[in-house]
Structures are given as C-alpha cells and as structure tokens.
Amino acid sequence: PTQPFFTELQNDHTYHFIREDKTWEEAQKYCRENYADLASVFDMADMERLRESKEYEGKAWIGLFNTWRWSDGSNFSFRHWDMESFNDGQNRKCAVTLLNRSGKWSSDECNNKNPFFCYDKLILINENKTWEEALDYCRLHHTDLVSITNPH
Predict the structure, then answer these.
(1) How would residue 147 be classed by pLDDT, with cut points 50, 70 and 90?
(2) I need a labelling partner for 7 at 20 to 30 A (CA). Which of 30, 37, 113, 139 fits?
(3) pLDDT of residue 124
(4) Which residue intervals define the domain C-type lectin in the entry (predicted)?
C-alpha cells in the first residue's frame, strides 16, 4: 500500500528564533512540541543561518547541554566556543549562542531564562508512494527518508 511519508532535511535546518524567556528545559519542551528540537549546529553554514534568523542581540539557548551533547542526539563534532566567556562550572551545563558578538557559544546555568532557537528538519510529503518510491523521492529531492534516532 502507498501512504504519505516524512523526508529529512539533514544539515539544512530551518531555524526559528523564539523571543520568550524560558529555562533550557522549558525551551527544549517547547521546541519538541512545536518544531523538532532545540537548535543543533553542525557547521559554519548552519551557524550563519542561525545568526541570520534573529532580530536580537544577546544570548539564546541552543541544544547543547550537560556533557556537551545535542538535545536531539546528533553527533557533536562542530565546536564554536567563545573561550573567553566559557565557564564549565558546576552550574553552567547548558549552551547559549552569543548573538551580540561573533555568534560563538558559551555556557550558562540551565535554570536561567533566555530566548532560544528551535529547528525543523522534517517535512511531510503528502503524496502516496510505496516505501521504495518514497526512498527514491527523498534521496533525489532532499536527503533521505526519516531515521528516528531518539524517542523525542
């Protein structure tokens, strides 16, 4: 049988700046309910798209936390730390991007309230196709069929 399917826009995220002050955990919950997750950043092109999607100068949550892993489970290989402001202290276990400077990242206390970035990386293709047709379509037009790598 044929059915609609989701395709993945890997490394081509659409970022959404949310100008509401929330703790990191509240921001994560909001992003998961309304988008995909808190923003993950994989390279400088992503970083530039993130910086261009706002009208704000200050700090904003991104999806890095705790032992510096992404909220959505993505690989953490790209790093953009501002070492002058970074403090890996006991209470500073969540990451912010510093939008009033170079856009580099710093750490903050997770219970502080900041605006934040969410991202979308899935789109629904509302066409009925078999699994093989859906796979071919996604690989030709986007990245691939969706792979679910964590329960969120």
Answers:
(1) low
(2) 30
(3) 75
(4) 10-119
Helices (H), the chain: 24-34, 44-52, 131-141
Number of independent structural domains in the chain: 1
pTM over 0.70: yes
In a domain, 133, yes or no: no
Q: Considering Cα of 52, then 53, then 58, then 61, what sign does the dihedral take?
A: negative
pLDDT at 11 over 70: no
Domain-located, residue 7: no
Q: Evaluate whether 50 touches 97 at the Cβ level (below 8 Å).
A: yes
First-to-last alpha carbon distance for the chain, in angstroms, is 27
Percent of the chain with pLDDT over 90: 20
Does 144 reside within a domain? no
Residue 105 lies in a domain: yes
Is residue 125 packed enough to be buried (19+ CB in 10 Å), middle (13-18) or exposed (0-12)?
middle
